[in-house]
């Protein structure tokens, strides 16, 4: 990586003013909510001169910005703000820019429209039985062992298998993805170092090689799956090769990251709140509302970025065209103006509408799928492993990321049947 000059980026960062908070601080990653409360008490909208972005800290302001079409995505400018000009030549940034996640209309509507039917409410509801079967099969393997890493052995495997099914990854290849890790550091507003960027590039290149091969297989041997449909659209001129690769990667990554962290963060929250755990065990009908509350209480996605497309007045403040706003949805979900006793886990919470899936035209396409996977996962674990114990619940190991909040590992044991 001859001309990367990440060291120059580090020098640039070192000369900036002190930030309002440090999103790389291990204490913040472990528990960001005290920091969010401190920031919100200052203002619902704060300028962070170190990051060169605004921080939206309240529910109402985050919700307004996410739905306001005067805000959108300007991914290349965002990357240049964090790093320097020329960084879009890096594989990770070049392909990320082509995903529907980073596009604006009309390209966003074109790309999202190609996959919307696969995630329609009707089709996702029909998948529930398949998800229930997968949960049962996984637990059949795990229960006799008496121990597992919840993240590696269950929370990762379940959603990876589901999204591989939807995409059309052959069953014999799905196990390859059970061992695959996704680098989400590129989503953070703090620049990656050279090693992290190389890891992100390698991830795209390795998975790109696999999916490119699978695209060719589906051209020769079409199946009733999403990849076949997207390949046919691409061959008809509806997608470039890079757009096809970028958006299949996005579906794979987004299709399991949120669910994995919902399950991991949720189980940790349950074991730290034994009263709510007992309540759920006594009344499994609370599972759907419990999943919504767990998404609010410790959101897998902690912020969503937007750029002002024109000068815009929000909350008595003018955000200039081109300025970036980090909508801190983790903070919004703990806003006491919206949620009574927000730091309390409460499965009886009424009118519970967290911002964990974003909002507006970029609202998460897989929101309903994630909720169903979470519901079936918690039903399975609570019914099959009622005496499960977490061994590192006091000091668990967290992924060192800000945008995506989730655990590295979560060891559990039980008395095998």
TrEMBL record:
Any matching Pfam family: p450
InterPro entries given in the database record: Cyt_P450 (IPR001128), Cyt_P450_B (IPR002397), Cyt_P450_CS (IPR017972), Cyt_P450_sf (IPR036396)
PROSITE patterns: CYTOCHROME_P450
Metal-binding is among the record's keywords: yes
Gene3D superfamilies attached to this UniProt entry: Cytochrome P450 (1.10.630.10)
Keyword set, alphabetical order: Heme, Iron, Metal-binding, Monooxygenase, Oxidoreductase, Plasmid
Keyword Iron in annotation: yes
PANTHER family registered for this protein in UniProt: CYTOCHROME P450 YJIB-RELATED (PTHR46696:SF1), P450, PUTATIVE (EUROFUNG)-RELATED (PTHR46696)
Family: Belongs to the cytochrome P450 family.
Protein name (record): Cytochrome P450
Organism, as annotated: Skermanella cutis
